[in-house]
Amino acid sequence: MSKNVIIGCDHGGLALKETLKPFIEKMGWSVTDLGTHTTDSCDYPLIAKAVCDAVLKDEGSLGILICGTGLGMSMTANRIPGIRAAVCTNEYMARMARAHNDANVLCLGERTTGPGLAQEITQVYLSAEFEGGRHLRRINLIEN
Ligand code: RB5
Description:
Blueprint: E1 4-9, H1 14-26, E2 30-33, H2 44-57, E3 62-67, H3 71-77, E4 85-87, H4 91-99, E5 105-109, H5 115-127, H6 134-143
Bound molecules: D-ribose (RB5).
D-ribose (RB5) is lined by residues 10, 12, 44, 67-69, 71-72.
Protein backbone atom coordinates (compact mmCIF):
# COMPACT_ATOMS: atom_id res chain seq x y z
CA MET A 1 0.00 0.00 0.00
CA SER A 2 1.16 3.50 -0.86
CA LYS A 3 2.86 5.59 1.79
CA ASN A 4 2.48 8.75 -0.22
CA VAL A 5 1.44 12.22 0.87
CA ILE A 6 -0.19 14.27 -1.86
CA ILE A 7 0.24 17.92 -0.94
CA GLY A 8 -1.06 21.18 -2.34
CA CYS A 9 -1.42 24.82 -1.38
CA ASP A 10 -2.43 28.21 -2.65
CA HIS A 11 -0.23 31.31 -2.45
CA GLY A 12 -1.28 31.70 1.22
CA GLY A 13 0.18 28.29 2.08
CA LEU A 14 3.29 28.09 -0.08
CA ALA A 15 5.89 28.75 2.62
CA LEU A 16 4.38 26.18 4.99
CA LYS A 17 4.17 23.59 2.21
CA GLU A 18 7.86 24.01 1.48
CA THR A 19 8.68 23.67 5.20
CA LEU A 20 6.62 20.51 5.58
CA LYS A 21 7.81 18.57 2.51
CA PRO A 22 11.29 17.59 3.81
CA PHE A 23 9.82 16.92 7.24
CA ILE A 24 7.29 14.47 5.76
CA GLU A 25 10.00 12.75 3.72
CA LYS A 26 12.11 12.31 6.86
CA MET A 27 9.13 10.46 8.35
CA GLY A 28 9.46 7.89 5.55
CA TRP A 29 6.64 9.07 3.28
CA SER A 30 7.05 10.01 -0.35
CA VAL A 31 5.61 13.40 -1.31
CA THR A 32 3.73 14.30 -4.48
CA ASP A 33 3.48 18.09 -4.78
CA LEU A 34 0.61 19.30 -6.95
CA GLY A 35 1.44 23.01 -6.47
CA THR A 36 1.11 25.87 -6.39
CA HIS A 37 4.81 26.54 -6.86
CA THR A 38 4.94 30.34 -6.85
CA THR A 39 3.66 33.21 -4.73
CA ASP A 40 1.37 34.38 -7.55
CA SER A 41 -2.23 34.61 -6.39
CA CYS A 42 -4.22 31.50 -7.33
CA ASP A 43 -7.55 29.83 -6.60
CA TYR A 44 -7.49 27.27 -3.79
CA PRO A 45 -10.50 25.19 -5.04
CA LEU A 46 -8.55 24.12 -8.11
CA ILE A 47 -5.67 22.83 -6.00
CA ALA A 48 -7.99 21.18 -3.48
CA LYS A 49 -9.82 19.30 -6.23
CA ALA A 50 -6.57 18.12 -7.85
CA VAL A 51 -5.18 16.82 -4.55
CA CYS A 52 -8.42 15.10 -3.55
CA ASP A 53 -8.77 13.40 -6.94
CA ALA A 54 -5.21 12.11 -6.61
CA VAL A 55 -5.82 10.85 -3.05
CA LEU A 56 -8.90 8.92 -4.19
CA LYS A 57 -6.89 7.26 -6.98
CA ASP A 58 -3.88 6.33 -4.82
CA GLU A 59 -5.03 3.81 -2.21
CA GLY A 60 -3.46 4.37 1.19
CA SER A 61 -2.25 7.85 0.35
CA LEU A 62 -3.13 10.89 2.45
CA GLY A 63 -3.61 14.49 1.37
CA ILE A 64 -2.41 17.72 2.93
CA LEU A 65 -3.94 21.02 1.80
CA ILE A 66 -2.66 24.38 2.98
CA CYS A 67 -4.13 27.84 2.47
CA GLY A 68 -4.21 30.93 4.66
CA THR A 69 -6.57 29.37 7.19
CA GLY A 70 -7.20 25.83 5.93
CA LEU A 71 -10.88 26.73 5.67
CA GLY A 72 -11.34 27.22 1.93
CA MET A 73 -9.38 24.05 1.25
CA SER A 74 -11.50 22.02 3.68
CA MET A 75 -14.79 23.44 2.37
CA THR A 76 -13.84 22.43 -1.15
CA ALA A 77 -12.41 19.03 -0.22
CA ASN A 78 -15.46 18.02 1.82
CA ARG A 79 -17.73 18.49 -1.22
CA ILE A 80 -15.96 15.58 -2.91
CA PRO A 81 -17.47 12.12 -2.21
CA GLY A 82 -14.98 9.88 -0.43
CA ILE A 83 -12.98 12.76 1.02
CA ARG A 84 -13.01 13.47 4.73
CA ALA A 85 -10.96 16.62 5.24
CA ALA A 86 -10.12 17.99 8.69
CA VAL A 87 -8.77 21.41 9.59
CA CYS A 88 -6.53 20.78 12.58
CA THR A 89 -5.06 23.48 14.80
CA ASN A 90 -3.61 21.22 17.49
CA GLU A 91 -2.20 17.72 17.92
CA TYR A 92 -5.32 16.33 19.64
CA MET A 93 -7.46 17.28 16.65
CA ALA A 94 -4.88 15.68 14.35
CA ARG A 95 -4.91 12.40 16.32
CA MET A 96 -8.72 12.26 16.47
CA ALA A 97 -9.04 13.20 12.79
CA ARG A 98 -7.36 9.88 11.98
CA ALA A 99 -8.41 7.72 14.95
CA HIS A 100 -12.13 8.56 14.93
CA ASN A 101 -12.86 10.25 11.60
CA ASP A 102 -10.43 8.43 9.29
CA ALA A 103 -9.70 11.80 7.69
CA ASN A 104 -7.88 11.27 4.42
CA VAL A 105 -6.99 14.94 4.02
CA LEU A 106 -5.39 17.25 6.60
CA CYS A 107 -5.99 20.97 6.12
CA LEU A 108 -3.64 23.54 7.63
CA GLY A 109 -3.56 27.33 7.73
CA GLU A 110 -0.23 29.03 7.25
CA ARG A 111 -1.58 32.29 8.67
CA THR A 112 -3.10 30.63 11.74
CA THR A 113 -0.66 27.86 12.66
CA GLY A 114 3.08 28.42 13.06
CA PRO A 115 5.55 26.10 11.34
CA GLY A 116 6.64 24.26 14.51
CA LEU A 117 3.08 23.43 15.54
CA ALA A 118 2.18 22.57 11.94
CA GLN A 119 5.04 20.04 11.88
CA GLU A 120 3.81 18.43 15.11
CA ILE A 121 0.24 18.31 13.82
CA THR A 122 1.50 16.67 10.62
CA GLN A 123 3.62 14.17 12.54
CA VAL A 124 0.67 13.12 14.71
CA TYR A 125 -1.72 13.00 11.75
CA LEU A 126 0.57 10.75 9.70
CA SER A 127 1.32 8.44 12.64
CA ALA A 128 -2.18 7.92 14.06
CA GLU A 129 -4.36 5.00 12.99
CA PHE A 130 -8.09 4.66 12.43
CA GLU A 131 -9.73 2.74 15.27
CA GLY A 132 -12.59 1.33 13.14
CA GLY A 133 -15.53 -0.31 14.99
CA ARG A 134 -18.24 2.19 15.89
CA HIS A 135 -16.24 4.91 14.15
CA LEU A 136 -16.46 3.01 10.86
CA ARG A 137 -20.25 2.85 11.22
CA ARG A 138 -20.32 6.59 11.82
CA ILE A 139 -18.13 7.62 8.93
CA ASN A 140 -20.21 5.40 6.64
CA LEU A 141 -23.27 7.36 7.78
CA ILE A 142 -21.70 10.63 6.59
CA GLU A 143 -22.29 9.80 2.95
CA ASN A 144 -25.25 7.40 3.14
C1 RB5 B 1 -6.05 33.76 0.23
O1 RB5 B 1 -5.86 35.11 0.48
C2 RB5 B 1 -6.93 33.13 1.29
O2 RB5 B 1 -8.23 33.58 1.16
C3 RB5 B 1 -6.86 31.63 1.19
O3 RB5 B 1 -5.52 31.23 1.33
C4 RB5 B 1 -7.62 30.81 2.23
O4 RB5 B 1 -7.30 31.24 3.52
C5 RB5 B 1 -9.05 30.63 2.01
O5 RB5 B 1 -9.74 29.91 2.77
